[in-house]
Automatic annotation (TrEMBL):
Lineage: Bacteria, Bacillati, Bacillota, Bacilli, Lactobacillales
Family indicated by similarity: Belongs to the ScpA family.
The UniProt record lists the keyword Cell division: yes
Single Gene Ontology BP annotation: cell division
Keyword set includes Cell division: yes
Protein name per Swiss-Prot or TrEMBL: Segregation and condensation protein A
PANTHER family documented for this protein: SEGREGATION AND CONDENSATION PROTEIN A
Subunit (UniProt): Component of a cohesin-like complex composed of ScpA, ScpB and the Smc homodimer, in which ScpA and ScpB bind to the head domain of Smc. The presence of the three proteins is required for the association of the complex with DNA.
Transmembrane segments: none
HAMAP family in the record: ScpA
Organism field: Liquorilactobacillus ghanensis DSM 18630
Length: 251
C-alpha cells in the first residue's frame, strides 16, 4: 500500500503490521519526520484515513479502536480549524492544545514499545548464553574436607559467624581508600601458610586476625585465600562439632 505525504514522498505500509492505532500513528509520524510534540494533524489524519480506506477496499476488517482513533483525529483537526479565541479568561493561562492528550498517549505507547524491544533483546541474549554446572572440587581437596562431613558451605557459614562475633566485639574498621595491592589473595596465601607453619597442631581460623585491629577487607581476602589453599591441597581443615570452630593446618 502506497500513500503520498506532505513532502510528495511515498509511504509504504505493510497491512496488518501494526498492533493498534497508536502504533500506526507513531509509524506515520516517523515516516513524515514530524516532531511528536508538534504533530501536523491535517497530514496525519489524511494518511490515517487513507490507510483505513485501503483496508476496507481489500475487505479487511477494521478494528473498532482504529475507527475511534479516526474520529479522535477528525475532532482534533476540526478544533484546530476553528477561529482562535481573541481573549482568554485569564491572560496568563495558555490556550489548551487539542493535540495534548493524543501526544501523551503516543509518548506512553512509545515508552511501552521501547521497553518491549529491550526485553526482547535481553531474552534473545539469554537464549545465546549457556550456563555450566558447578565445578567439581578436586579429589585431593575433597579428602581434606571429609572429616566430620565438612563442606565448603560449612566454611562459608563459619566465616559469617566469625564476622558476626567480631562485629559484636568491636566496630569493624573499614578502609575507605584501599590500594589494589593492599590485600590480595596471593599475599594472604603467603600469610596463611606462614601462620600455619609457625603453629604446632590445629589453628582456629579466627586466630589468624588480631581482634583489636580487624579489617573487613583482610578477613574476606583471607577466606578466599583459604579456599584456594584447600583447592590446591596445601591446607587441611576440620570441624569437630556442628557449628564449632573451624581449624586448619598445613599438609
Amino acid at each position: 500500500m502506497v500513500l503520498a505525504d506532505r513532502k510528495s514522498k511515498q509511504l509504504t505500509f505493510k497491512l496488518a503490521a501494526f498492533e493498534g492505532p497508536l502504533d500506526l500513528l507513531l509509524h506515520l509520524i516517523k515516516q513524515n519526520e514530524m516532531d511528536i510534540y508538534d504533530i501536523q494533524i491535517s497530514a496525519i489524519t489524511s494518511q490515517y484515513l487513507a490507510y483505513l480506506h485501503q483496508m476496507q477496499s481489500l475487505s479487511l476488517d477494521v478494528a473498532g479502536e482504529y475507527l475511534v482513533m479516526a474520529a479522535t483525529l477528525l475532532s482534533i483537526k476540526s478544533r484546530l480549524l476553528l477561529p482562535q479565541h481573541e481573549e482568554l479568561e485569564s491572560p496568563d493561562e495558555p490556550e489548551e492544545d487539542p493535540r495534548q492528550e493524543l501526544v501523551e498517549q503516543l509518548l506512553a505507547h512509545q515508552c511501552y514499545q521501547l521497553t518491549a524491544n529491550k526485553l526482547q533483546e535481553l531474552a534473545a541474549k539469554r537464549r545465546r548464553s549457556y550456563s555450566r554446572p558447578p565445578a567439581e572440587v578436586p579429589l585431593a581437596s575433597q579428602k581434606l574436607l571429609l572429616k566430620k562431613q565438612l563442606k565448603i558451605t560449612d566454611l562459608e557459614r563459619y566465616f559469617e559467624q566469625v564476622l558476626l562475633r567480631q562485629r559484636q566485639r568491636l566496630q569493624l574498621k573499614r578502609v575507605r581508600h584501599v590500594r589494589p595491592e593492599k590485600f590480595t589473595i596471593e599475599t594472604e596465601i603467603k600469610r596463611l601458610k606462614k601462620k600455619v607453619s609457625q603453629h604446632v597442631g590445629w589453628l582456629a581460623f579466627d586466630k589468624l586476625f588480631a581482634p583489636d585491629d580487624l579489617i573487613l577487607e583482610q578477613v574476606v581476602t583471607s577466606f578466599l585465600a583459604l579456599l584456594e589453599l584447600i583447592k590446591r591441597g596445601q591446607i587441611e581443615v576440620q570441624q569437630e562439632t556442628d557449628l564449632g570452630p573451624i581449624k586448619l593446618r598445613g599438609v
